[in-house]
Amino acid sequence: MARTAVSGRLTWRVAELAETADLTASARRLVFDVPGWPGHLPGQHVDLRLTAEDGYSVQRSYSISSAPDGDRIELAVQRVADGEVSPYLCDVLAAGDQIELRGPVGGWFVWRPADQAPVTLVAGGSGIAPLMAMIRARAAEGSRVPFRLVYSVRTPDDVYFADELRRRAREDAGLDVKLVYTRRTPEGSPEPPGRLGVATINTYAWPAEFTPNCFVCGPTGFVETVSDVLVALGHDPRRIRTERFG
């Protein structure tokens, strides 16, 4: 499954699965030990490669959801029922197993703790993964940069990192979290389910006059819609950074 790789940011390395746990009914948290990992910036991703005994190989890219932490990284993997890679990662790969990995990759969709501008994060579904790395890195750095997260999911059962987000929002006055449910809301919620729209972004994201950095991640249609809304609300397009999948 894996072959030894020489050191290098875009060279394949052998990573060993250290921990795994459910994030939702259809997603898993995978923590890898990557000897010689060069470190990463919040928002970067890695490439994973699976190679069968007959030599057939397939690659997929996954955002890193952890703050920089030595030789260890965390990924959040959504299971795609008919996929080639995600069912193996979610249902077969076990602690102690090895896989090929390279990275970190990307330099545009990243948050740097030295940047003091307010931050608006907008996620759709599994698009929370790289934004979670930013939230965690902010906490690890002891940064006081104010963050606002607007996170759109289908139902309460689909929230990644649900307990951690609740705890961080409760304990950190500099982090605001707004969950938007498109299909089903929590019991007793005063708001009906609905898609993320102008009113929600206008209310819960930083206003354009604050010149925030905006990071938007999710399915292509979601990212395009949110980006258009931010521009319509007066945000500088140069400060809107996007990452899309699907």
Automatic annotation (TrEMBL):
Domain FAD-binding FR-type: 10-111
Keyword field contains Metal-binding: yes
Name of protein: Ferredoxin reductase
Keywords: 2Fe-2S, Iron, Iron-sulfur, Metal-binding
PROSITE patterns assigned: FAD_FR
Cofactors required: FAD
Pfam families: FAD_binding_6, NAD_binding_1
PANTHER family: NADH OXIDOREDUCTASE HCR (PTHR47354), PROTEIN RFBI (PTHR47354:SF5)
